[in-house]
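Long-time lurker. I teach an intro course on protein structure, and each term I like to show students one example going from raw sequence to a predicted 3D structure in token notation. This year I'd like something fresh instead of my usual example. Would anyone be willing to generate the tokens for the chain below so I can use it in lecture? Attribution to the forum is fine with me.
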Amino acid sequence: MNLSNIRAPKKSSEKRKRVGRGMGSGMGKTSTRGHKGQRSRSGSRMIRGFEGGQMPLHRRMPKRGFTNIFRKEFNIVNLESLADLGETTITPEVLRQAGVIKTKHP
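-- Reply from a regular --
Happy to contribute to a lecture. Here you go:
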């Protein structure tokens, strides 16, 4: 392989399609849209995700996750704050009185 036999990649030198610039261009009059029909009209672009009336993929897929009605809420407690309580039995009431955990509804 040398400089004398290197070729440009395919389609790299093709000119872009200029439509609607006169009959002599070969792409005048209907501008490559053909005659009548939905796609020949102006403003005819399918909305993103449209699948011809079939339920679109983004509506067929389930929404992410769900709400668990039986969930348990946990409070995070540092070991240092437990050590500060001393030699007491640790219960939620003791932790609330010491201010280690907060209550949602005081």
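Some talking points for your students: The CA atoms of residues 41 and 94 lie 75 Å apart. Residues 73-106 form one domain.
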